[in-house]
Structures are given as structure tokens and as C-alpha cells.
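TonB-dependent receptor
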Amino acid sequence: MKTFSSPPRQRRLISLAVAGACASLAPAYAQNTAPTPGDGTIGPSVVVTGIRASMQSTLNLKRNADGIVDGIVAEDMGKFPDTNLAESLQRISGVSIDRSNGEGQKVTVRGLGPDFNLVLLNGRQMPTTDLSDLSGRSFDFSNLASEAISQLQVYKTGRADSPTGGIGATINVMTARPFDNPGLHASVGAKAVYDTSNDHVPDMLKGKKVTPEISGIYSNTSEDGRFGVALSASYQSRNSGFNRAGLANGYQGPYLGSAVIAGQTLPQPGQLGSENITNRPAQDALYSIPQNMGYGVNAIQRQRTNAQLTFQFRPVKELTTTVDYTYSENKIQTKRNELSVWFAQTPTSTSSWPSGHVVSPLTYSEVYNAPQDISVIGGDYATKTKNKSLGFNAVWKARPGLKVEFDAHHSTAESGADSPFGSENDLSNASFSRGTTSLDFTHELPILSMPAADLVNAPIQAAGSWFHNSYQKSIVKQAQAKASLELLESSNLNFGVGYTDTSNRSTYSSVQNNTWGGATKASDYPASLFQANSLSSFFNKLGGANSPNLFATLYTFDFATVRQVTANAVGNQAAYLPNFGTPDTDRTLEEKTTSGYLSFNTDWDTKIPFHSSVGLRVEKTKVNSVAQVLPGTAVVWGSQNELPITFGGQAFSNTDASYTNVLPALNLDFDVRSDMKVRASAGATIGRPRYDQLQGGLTLGTIANVFTGGTASVGNPALKPVKSKNLDLSWEWYYDKQSLMSLAYFHKKMDNYAGQTLVTQSLYDLHTPVGGAYYNAAIGAGGCAVADTNCIRDYILSNYNGQPGVTKTGTKGDGHLDGTITGLSTDPLLQFSTTTYANQKSANVSGAEVNVQHMFGQSGFGIQANYTYVHSPLKYNNADVNDQFAILGLSNSANVVGIFENNDWSVRVAYNWRDSFLAATTDASNRAAPIYTDAYGQVDVSIGYNFNKNLSFQAEVINLTDATTRQHGRTEASTLNVTQAGPRYMVGVRYKF
């Protein structure tokens, strides 16, 4: 077999130039320190074009790296191989992604989730904001277009010169710079996007069927090579949607089969209702009961704008300066409608169960003495995220053998509402006509049946509402100075210092109306406001959608119109608008980190030549947490099972903490043969806690539960980072210049994980009417059962109206009395389950990766394939009802990519698969309960045709097989949600100048 010699150490720079400059994270070899953007390094002008050239450049990057590195190089300037950077990253072994609305958003590397992977832009730490995850550190790749990206580098092992924060990996996103490709390069492109998921939402929610994408890039350098400018810009519009069915608030329980908890558990054998249970859970079994069920349709419109401007100036050959400005804006508008019901866990239920120690029902049905509500919900969400970064870089070759670099930037990320209604808003309407209500979990789609429902004689009317306004801003100010000094013939010394100031501010306010029994009378709402749609048509890809027992209709309405009608009927506009003034909660966390590193690299001319890099990084971080929160002032029983908290006043906290980390790093690579390498790496890395784990300030849940009490949370600013001791081994065989086979093993021993601790306590001297004198009278003299909270409320409102704390306002649509019952000072204190955090957990993760890249001679055909196995002895125990610590996102993954390319055509078919994984350890109701995401596989196809050397055409399909997603709870059968979206088709044209 033909082999290809490994390039001499001093010539590795040429290979890395082909790969395209490895930023400030690039490997530092003796005599051949890899180029930093704008460092003035001059190599042969190599233009990367085509899939095969991109694959070869990627191999060069991996082969010449210090440590274990993977990457993806653009096929050509302005032509990255995927439309989304996260979707590109998933092709790399060990990398899997989380999708949002069918698009890659965040990455997991080697079993470590998004919060433990550091994302850099040109070697700089970037801020990130995400209103769906106000307190996370994970970078949202959906904010960045791919057109301006020259390459992605995934550093899986630590190095002393790498910024900290990535235990799974450090991902460096590199943009195009003019000196990397001297001369004039320009291209413009346009695409038409047809997202079929937009067809699967109600007509009144749909956007335009076809949307545009436009991009352009211009790069030029002066003839003397002293000046360079690059400008890239893109605009993308996408209309899409997804439909989801499931139990948004999870399951009640789990309960022990032998337990007797009034109002919550199944009746015991011989008790009333026990005859309606088929295959009753065993006495020692754990079982869960559905809490609610809903069907939602979601229409999404997105507009994404990206731009980058870069100037480079080389006044003398030894000095290169770069100034760059990056801007991105991502605007998302979501309109949603939902049909949902709640279960009361009545003793009149009928259910059937599978066998097992941990079970959920196959079928479940409840009968009510009075009509219950059918919720018809509409949501209007609109958010805007802006990212800005201004940076300066200077590289000076002070003298032969000494290179000095300085880099600084100021970057911001800001997310907030893009609507007069706030960032996230819902109107809940209801028809009080539900009788017997049943659920069937034996199909892929849970089947909700309500045979007695009558929305004509019990028309839809306004009920509760909530208007949320969230805001988040993150700022990173960073300066780095570094130097590389050549020593003797084959060694060099690298050293540097850095300072990073990161701040993250998040605010939140809520205007909520707890009028769940009806805001006003039904006659205020004409039937014409609500449009009937066939429910099954939105879930036609899911098994069971054609069941004759499925409730037939999903109602949609225009949010703005119904909001205005409701506000007019109630006579209070402010109650149906967000609070844009003083937020309820305002938190700021600032981290200031000072760092220094030293590393010594050398080549060893032994029988088996090898290269070593040994280094040490020291960091000191100061943390300051400032929080303003809203104290609770009263507990008001306003509906059947809910106890809304009344808030007032303000409370503040200010907490400081600090920690120091010493992080060694050792990287070795052995040239076993001219075409074969063996690598070994050991060292320590850290991953910083999430902002919500660090931020102080006690926050109460807005609504407590009659049976389970309230919830609260508070962070711990003194938390230390997770520290991981890492061992990595790799074997790499470069048996052809475009082909590779590699095996890798990794082991991570992690300490200081922040574990949740749950404390039950009373807060703010809040008293609950549950268990008070009125309540006990309803149980005693009124003869109400503990489980029958409607009976208890009716008794209190009827017999104690006008007494302290009791106000009756009328009769609800379901026939029960309406009004409020406020906790008195003589009533019991409300107990809150308060969550906080402490460094108390440890975990080990190990795994293996196999990677193959092969080109079939000069045929134009090639294949890439990889598989990653990840294992941790720490498993979530589904039979344990207590809070548990487990690693989220841990899953095996695989990729297979087939390619064909000649002078005219390029074809790529990619299959990505991710095994099932634990997504969360608490459900939406903040109960200790696992959420698992099922295994998922997706096929993507891209085809390109070169009409001539300047003009080319592209066609792409994302999710060709129309894959659906599903999540479940403690058992495979306990469906939490199933989601249907659709394939996305794109056709485009690109012209190179």
C-alpha cells in the first residue's frame, strides 16, 4: 500500500496554511509555531476548493495538531459545507447536538453537555444569551450564519494556552481574513427555502411558503501585501413550525403501590373505585398518574442577519495588525395554539397498567361530578438577540525566534422582547363542558378522548393569562498577551497572561391573571373569534393520529384580537400587557479572571521520534453576585388546586466569592511510522457552573399547589467549577493524503459537580388557607373529602363569605363558586421545597471513538464514518423518587457521510444518529423526575453543480426522512411528548468573481 511521509517539523506550517490558520489556539511546535490570524506568516497561496480539498485540509489540521483535535474546513471562501454550524459539528466524532425547531442549536461533546463546552470566535471567549435558558453558558449556534466561517476547530484535550471552560471540548470558530487568502475573492449567493413544517400548522398561523437567503463575501489585499479588507454579510428568513403532543407538566407521583395519600393515589383493594383498575400496580411498585395532556401547534418565523468587517494592516513585514467587527441579529416570532386538559386524580378513575416495578398507565380515565374546563390557549412570543464584537489583534516578530502577540476585544450579547406584548405571553380560554376524560398511551401519539365535550352550548370564554417579559445581556471584555521563544534547535517556550471580565444580567417580570374559572361572562366572546381545525391533521406522521377516539378539534385564534376583547371586557388594559418597568427579578453575575500560562515544547530525535508539550496554567477568578427579587406577601387560594403567591416590595443580596485553579497539561505524539501517529494527553480542565447555580437571590414559584406546597430556588455564588482530570489516547493512520483511520480513548474524572439540595421550609411568613380553620370546617361539618378541593372551596365561599380572607365573586362556568380565600396569620405556614446548590458530586466519564475517512482513488467517491461510545457508571435510578445527580446528554452517536465529486457535480448524503439520553432530572413542575430523549436519526442531502468556474447551483434537503422526536419519563411507555416537524428544501445559486 502506498504511504505518504509525514512532513518534517519545520514544514508543518505549510500543512496548517492549507488548513487555514489556527487562530490563537493553534498548536505551538518547535520552529514551526502555527500561524495566528494576522500574524504575518507567509506560506504558499493555497485555495481550498471542493469537498475533497476540504477533507484533506481537515486531515492536515488533525495530523499536525498538538493534542487531539478535529475540525471542518470550508470548501471555498463563503461556502461552508452545512447551513448551520452546529449541524456541521455533529459530523465530528464525539460531537452530538440539541435541535430546536429542527435546527442544530447547541452541542454536546464526549458526553458533556452544552454548558461544559467553551465556544470561541477567532480564539476569543464569546458572550451568549438565550431567553429560553436565561442562566446557561451554552452557546447558541443558530445565531451565526455559516457563510463567513472559514473553519471550525474542536480541541478535545487541554493545553496550557487554551482559555478555560471546556471540559468536553473547546470549539474555535474562525472567520475569513484577507491575509489568509491574498488577492481578490468575492462571491454572492441566493437561496429559496421551502420548509414543509410551515405547511403543517393552521392556515391562520402560516407564513410565506418560500423564504429567501442572501449572502455575499468580499476579500481583497493590496498589491504590496500591506493592506487587506474583508466584508461578509448574509440575511436569512425562514418560516417553519412544529406540533407537539404530551404531558407538559409531567406525571403526578411516583407513588408506592401500598401508599394511601388522600386525593393523590389509587384506591386500595376493596376501596371505592378499586374495581375500575386493571392489573393494579403491585404493593411494592412505583406508579405515576398523568397530570395534564395537551396538543400544541407552533408557527415560527425567523429573520437572521450576520455581518463581519475585517481590516488588516502590515506596516512592516514583522508586524501584522487586525481590526474586526462582527454583528449578528436573530429575530424569532412564535405563534402557538394549544388544546389541553388537567386531571384531578379523582377516586372515580378507571385505569389499566402494565406489569413491572416502575409503571405508568396504559389507559387512564376520570369521571367528574360537574363539568370541567377544556383549555384553549394561544401564545404570542417574539424575541430578538443581538451579538456584537469589536476586536484588535497585533502579531510582532520581534526578532528571529521570538514572536509576540496581543489580542483584545469587547463583545456583547443581548436578548429581549420584540413585541409590545413582551417576550412570552399566553391567553388561556376555556369551555366548561368536559365530562369523562380519557387518555390512551398505547399509540405513538397519546389519544385524548372527551365524548361529552360540547363547545357550542358551553362556548369558549377567557380564563387566566400571563404576560412575561425577559431580558438578558452578557458582556465579555478580554485582553491576552502571549509570546513564543525558540530555544536551541528544536524547542520553544510559550508564555502569556490574560484578563477576562464577564458579566451576565438577567431580568424577569410577569403579569398574571389567575381567573381560571372565567375572566368575564361567556357572552363577551363571539364564537367567530375561535376557528375550528382538524386536530389529527397536525399529527399525521405519528401512529394513532387516525384513532376514532381522538378528540376531533383544535381551536385557534388571533392573539392580539382576543387580548383586546378580554381587556375591554374586564375593563383593565394593564392587566393584559407586560410590565416593561421595574422587573420583578433582576440578577447580575460578574466574573473577573486573571490568568497566566507557561509551556515548553520540544522534539525528541529518538528511535521513535516524538514531540512533547508540557505546560501549566494558573487562574484566579473573583465572583460577584447582585440580585433583586420580589418577596411574597400573601397566599391566595384562587382556583381548584392552585395557590397563587402575591408579591410586593423588593429584596436585595450582594455576595462575593473567589477561587484559584492550577491546571497542568501534557501532550505527547509519537511518529510510529511516516504515516502513523500515537498520541497521549493528560491534564486538568474546568467547567464553570451555570449562572443560575451561582446567582444569589431567593426566588419563589408564582403558584403553589394545594397538595404539594410551593417551590423556591436560590443560587450559591461560592460554587467552584467542576474540575476534570483527563486522560486521552489516540492512534491515527494516514494511509492516503485524503484518507484516515483513527481510534481514540478518553477518560474524565470530574469533581465539584454542583448537586441540587432540596430543603423544605417556610418563607416570608406566608400562611396557607389549606389546613386552616375554614378548611377544617369544610372537611368536618361540610363533609368534604380531602381530595375534593372544589367541595372545600364551595363550602368556605358559601359559609364564610365576608369573613377575614374570604371573598366570593360569583359562580364559574362549571357550576362551582368563584372567589378567593387568603391565608390568615392563624393558618399553617406554607411549606416551600427550596432548591439550592453545593459542590458535592463526582462523576467519571469514559469512552471511545472510531473514525474512518476514505477516498476511493480518483473515482470521486468517498466516505466518512465515525462512532462514539460514551459510558459513565453514574446512572439515573428510575426507581428512586428522591433528587438525583446524573450527567445530562450522555449518549452514543454515529455519522455516515457519502460523497461524490468531479469537475461538475458534488453530492453529499449524510446520516446522523444519536442514541437516547437523559435530558433533565426535574420535570416542568420542578419535581424530581427524569426526562429522556429517545434515539434520533436524520438524513441530509446536498447536491452542487458547477455550470462554469464562476457560476454554480445547489440543492439541499434537511431531514429528508421526516424524522420525529419523542421524550419519555421513568419508563419507555411514559410518554412526555412527541414532536412532528418536516423536511426543509433549499435551492440556490452562487457566483464567484
